[in-house]
Amino acid sequence: MTLTPHHLADALTALRWKRPLVHCLTNDVVSAVTANALLAAGAAPVMAHAPEEAAVIAARAGALLVNIGTLTRERVDVMAAAAQAATGAGAPWVLDPVGVGASPFRQGAAGWLSTLKPTILKGNAAEILTMATGEPAGRGVDAEEQNPRAVQDAATALARSLGCVVAVTGEADFITDGSASVTINNGDPLMGRITGSGCVAGALMAAMLGAGVAPLLAAAAALAAFGLAGERAAKGAPGPGTFQARLMDELASLSAEDLAAGARIA
Predict the structure, then answer these.
(1) How far apart are CA 15 and CA 255, in angstroms?
(2) Segment 193-202 mean pLDDT
(3) Phi, psi values for residue 175, rounded to 5°
(4) Which residue in 26, 136, 213, 244 is a FRET match for 204, CA 20 to 30 A apart?
(5) Whole-angstrom Cα distance, residue 181 to residue 266?
């Protein structure tokens, strides 16, 4: 099936109607931003990192987000337990290997988590290349310039090997399940000047999954909706501080009709 802006709009409608509970095991830097973005989009966030309850909540939630931005050994174990519990309960989950090339510890953790059957693997070009090749690409969490064709080929191969959707974020977002692929061209440069925009994108993918949206469409709809909200927020925003507040407002006010009219998908 060829995805259209109307499919993306239907996905947003499903999210707003079902209001899924999204369990976020995310990093310390972006927890509040992620929770606010999920609420603005129409989902319900919960963030429970305690080993005593994380797996239980993951099994009961509509979807799980695993974001490795601020890792400890205990957190890796909690994330693995939560991912296994979600998979066992039939709940979809998103793996966001933030800064995976920054250290061997981070790379090893992401590699292990990727074997636990994520529904969507989401990262920037450098992160996806690192996951695909095993060789660090880029600098920490930064997405340095990469060859677009090489990144797309790596993402496609990674999707096939892991059996999941791989979403590569950037100036143009590339999403593939190893067979079909789509490109989303929404967004604004100011999104790269605030903390957590990539992390929020992963959370919105989890919310779409929690609403019952198929993985390829879930990733595409999340990125298109967030990107379009960013475009609208950037109009009249003098800088990143004002932009971040406006972004939450635009994410909350974005309608399915707005998405159908403004999504740029190829």
Answers:
(1) 11
(2) 93
(3) -125, 130
(4) 136
(5) 9
Cα distance between residue 89 and residue 95, in whole Å: 17
Vertex 133: Cα angle to 128 and 138 (nearest 5): 55
pTM for the predicted model, two decimal places: 0.94
Taking only the tens place, the pLDDT of each residue in 52-108 is 999 999 999 999 999 999 999 999 999 999 999 999 999 999 999 999 999 999 999
Residue with the two structure tokens 């604004």 = 188
Q: 127 vs 35, 47, 138, CA distance in Å?
A: 23, 24, 8
Q: Measured between alpha carbons, how far is residue 256 from residues 3, 35, 119, 172, 221 in Å?
A: 15, 21, 24, 21, 11
Q: 170-208 as b/e, with b when 16 or more CB fall inside 10 Å?
A: bebbbbbbbeebbbbebbbebbbebebbbbbbbbbbbbb
The contacts of residue 34 (CB under 8 Å, 6+ apart) are: 24, 26, 45, 47, 65, 196, 199, 200, 203
CA dist 84 → 112, 203, 219 (Å): 12, 18, 21
* The Cα angle at residue 43 between residues 141 and 244, in degrees rounded to 5: 50
Q: Which residues share a beta bridge with 96?
A: 67
